[in-house]
Write a structure and sequence with these properties.
This protein is 29% helix and 27% strand. A seven-stranded parallel sheet has the order 7-11-6-1-4-5-12, with helices on both faces. Strands 14-13-15-16-17 form a five-stranded parallel sheet. Strands 8-9-10 form a three-stranded antiparallel sheet, with no helix packed on it. The mean pLDDT is 94. It binds flavin-adenine dinucleotide (FAD).
Length: 322
């Protein structure tokens, strides 16, 4: 019995998300009195693989063959299922992102495993195995009991702190070949956005709503984001109006994010917006209406005109950075 965690890499490098997943898996393993094996698929150098050991992986299984260079959910599910059986995994951890959402259900079908999706805490209980997740657009929480022998958890991003431990993990290189009939997709070309922080990966997000009044008023918000190393986001009406691109829209029908800091400028705090951002660690709201619902979701608030507050914030951050 062990806990298996699927760790994603980007061009052979792990990001904070991978370490968060391993830290979480180590926490689950501790509750079950077992150890963590981390699976990495794709070309990752040994030095990079070893980093997973710093967060609690005792064994690192690296699968690297030409069939698996880019994500194919069927093929990846087959490989992860095969390793799970070999390792006797009782719990398998994925990120609750696009990759996890594509692969985890397929592994679930293969292993007849129950899934707790979007989980944001360590299991509340291991017998019965009970996980905690937010539900109803973040307005309630659910305790979900997973009854199957193998359990799958997809972890909500940024919901678990990194926990470093001194560990000398062993690395096992596995050469698993995949049934070619499973390989349904192949990536021909990847065009990366340059100079822009990816919203779903960002630690800090500065977001604007209809209170920004027009597309022409965005420069102080962008300047603040640039100074803070933050991604920019917006509410749905803003992207509907064409003031900002659609890929910045957060909420129930947009991106679901969980940065450490979310600064909401001129956003009223409708439940459909909060559904996408309520897992943020800290929310700061800037709004001219002291009764705006966003202040109930925020830990810090500034009541004022965004056009006056933003330049002051920009100046203050510049002063601190001097
Ligand atoms: C099915 C459905 C799905 C939806 N999905 C989403 C979604 O995914 N994401 C989303 O965002 N919305 C979504 N919505 C829309 C949502 O209900 C709200 O209408 C929307 O979030 C409001 O956007 P807003 O806060 O930018 O605008 P408003 O509600 O118009 O709020 C603007 C705010 O700016 C403040 N303000 C005005 N002037 C200033 C100023 N000068 N300085 C500072 N503050 C100022 C106002 O006090 C107000 O609080 C959805 C709606 C439906 C029905």
């Amino acid at each position: 019995m062990s806990v298996l965690v699927y760790t994603e890499n980007w061009d052979g490098k792990f990001k904070k998300l991978s370490f968060e997943l391993v830290s979480y898996a180590a926490g689950v393993a501790k509750l079950l009195n077992t150890t963590v094996a981390a699976v990495s698929i794709g070309r990752v150098e040994e030095n990079e693989l070893k980093k997973l050991g710093n967060y609690g992986a005792v064994k690192i299984i690296s699968v690297n063959n030409d069939q698996l260079v880019s994500l194919d959910s069927q093929a990846y599910a087959s490989v992860i299922s095969e390793i799970s059986v070999k390792e006797g995994a009782s719990v398998i951890v994925f990120a609750n992102n696009n990759t996890g959402k594509a692969v985890a259900p397929r592994v679930s079908v293969r292993l007849k495993a129950g899934v707790g999706s979007g989980v944001s805490r360590l299991p509340l209980n291991v017998d019965p195995f009970t996980v905690y997740k937010r539900t109803y657009s973040g307005n309630a929480f659910a305790h979900v009991i997973i009854k199957s022998a193998v359990k799958i958890i997809t972890l909500a991003q940024n919901s678990f702190d990194l926990i470093e431990t001194a560990n000398n993990a062993t690395i096992e290189i596995l050469n698993i070949s995949v049934d070619p009939s499973l390989l349904k997709t192949s990536v021909k070309d990847v065009q990366k956005q340059s100079g822009k922080i990816v919203l779903t990966d960002a630690d800090i997000v500065v977001s604007g709503g209809r209170g920004m009044k027009s597309a022409d008023n965005w420069s102080p918000l962008i300047e603040l984001a640039t100074l803070l190393g933050a991604a920019t986001a917006c509410s749905r009406p803003v992207s509907d109006e064409g003031w900002r691109p659609h890929d910045e829209h957060t909420g129930q029908t947009g991106k679901i994010i969980a940065p450490n800091l979310y600064i909401a400028v001129g956003i009223s705090g409708a439940t459909q917006h909060l559904a996408g951002i309520s897992s943020s660690k800290y929310i700061v709201a800037i709004n001219s209406d002291k009764d705006a619902p966003v202040f109930e979701a925020a830990q810090y608030g500034i009541v004022g005109d965004a056009m006056k507050v933003l330049p002051k914030l920009v100046a203050a951050v510049k002063e601190i950075k001097k």
